[in-house]
Amino acid sequence: MATHTETETASSGTDREFVPFFGRFFPESLALSVLLALAALLVTIPYLAPLEQLELFATGFYDLFVLQMALILYWVLSATVVGARPVGALFDRIARAIPTSQPAIVYSTGLLALAFGWVNWALGLLGGVFVGRRLCRRAREEGVAVHYPAVLTAGLLSLVLANQGPSSPGALLMADTRVAEMTGFLDGSATLAVSEFLLAPANLVPSVVLVVTLPLVLVALAPGAEANRAEIEGESILEGTIAETFDHYSLPSKGEYTPADLLEQSRLVSLVAVAIGLGSAGLYFAAGGALTLLWLLFTLMILGLLVHVRPMAFRSKTTRATRWANHVAIPFMLYAVVFALLSAAGLYGAIGDALGGALGAFLAALGVGLLVPDPASVWVLVGPALVAAGSDLVASITAVMYGAGLSNLWLGFLFCGILSIRGFDWREFARYAAVVSVYVVVVVGASLLVL
User: If you write DSSP's letter for every residue of 310-369 in order, what string do you get?
Assistant: First the structure.
């Protein structure tokens, strides 16, 4: 059997420390998904026979099983690509270029988190949190006091725009006709090109405004006097450089190599796979192929092989990255049950009429997102109502994705406050959460109404 070695020191911090650290902010979604499924069961009592209800409750997830697997890979492969040493080295270079004053650190962390988050959720979240932490440590070494709760909040801002860019799960789902054909999810509804979603004024304008101005809001909120600034005490998520923290794999000694190791540790095998994969993707997109969820997953897999260099290193990081999908692995089956019950009862049309358009969809997604941490699952639950009501598809996805992103930010703040992480108590939660949320609601709401 082939052998490999995974470092078990602080250098494996991304998966051994950061995921549990981030897990402190977010609730266990399984209990909430059970409550949603039971609520859907009660609501559909007047419309469905008891046996039909029970059958849908027991098997309603099956039709969307393919979609669930794709969403799990969406989380796992994104974390796998970003949690690589070369990406960590890039973050280190960015951190070294930023001045160590509090305004510069807070603004730069927020700007980086929002801009990178627009590209991909993992790039923005890991980049924002780890670069912010690295900057705070540099500032402490130089004798500069920085209020770390403001910096941590700036890193979490990535969640606001994580669903508005080219890897938006809602847009990718509606662009992928193959997923629709395999699952029947909104099959026959109008398809959407991701570029159409990206360039929609109601999506693009507030995204640009928030990237530039939202970090300024945090700069203004952060304590001005050095005496009022505080670090978060306790275990750190970053011990060495970010590259060292992301590094998780070491080669077995040459004397321990088996024949299988020669393939599993071969850079040539990875390079051949990457060349074939990038060539396939390049030909597809050059021929006018559309960006879809399945093509994004394929591209992420190839990029994962590229940045991890060796096949076994890629496999090891992928195994660790499965922790990022815990919030969707089991709960999604219950979200699919809710979708099946409401669809069979014919309630989605009435729900869509009640929402009344993009602004109503934004508020509904914000509320549902407090119970459903996965933005794609929010679209699975809310999107069919908007499609059934004949709402504009681009405006609908834009509104739901903004609502889901802001609700994720609320979850982060909420559980920081409830769990009272030292240095980030409920009063700071209330101040940061309220001001940031009001600002985002104003910017996004005005764009949805005007644009």
Answer: SHHHHHHHHHHHGGGGHHHHTHHHHHHHHHHHHHHTT-HHHHHHHH-SHHHHHHHHHHHH
Model confidence over 16-33: pLDDT tens digits?
Answer: 455 555 555 555 677 888
The closest of 336, 363, 344 to 441, measured between CA atoms, is 363
Give the pair of three-digit tokens for residue 447: 């764009």
Of 348, 351, 382, nearest in space to 365 by CA = 382
The first and second tokens of residue 144, run together, are: 């500069």
305/313 Cα distance (integer angstroms)? 8
CA–CA separation, 150 vs 223, rounded Å? Answer: 9
Encoding tokens for residue 107? Answer: 């603004």
- Report pLDDT for 13: 42
Q: Which amino acid is at 49?
A: A
Short-list 268, 265, 233, 235, CA closest to 250:
265
For residue 54, give the H/E element and its range: helix 50-59
Q: Do 95 and 59 meet the contact criterion of CB atoms below 8 Å apart?
A: no
DSSP symbols for 167-211 = T-HHHHHHH-HHHHHHH-TTTTSPP--HHHHHH-HHHHHHHHHHH
Summarised one tens digit per residue, pLDDT across range 416-428 is: 444 445 555 667 7
Closest C-alpha among 306, 307, 378 to residue 338: 378
Q: Are 202 and 358 in contact (CB under 8 A)?
A: yes
pLDDT of residue 149: 82
Does pLDDT of 431 surpass 90?
no
Cα 128–Cα 130–Cα 133 angle in degrees, nearest 5: 105
227: its two tokens? 């005496």
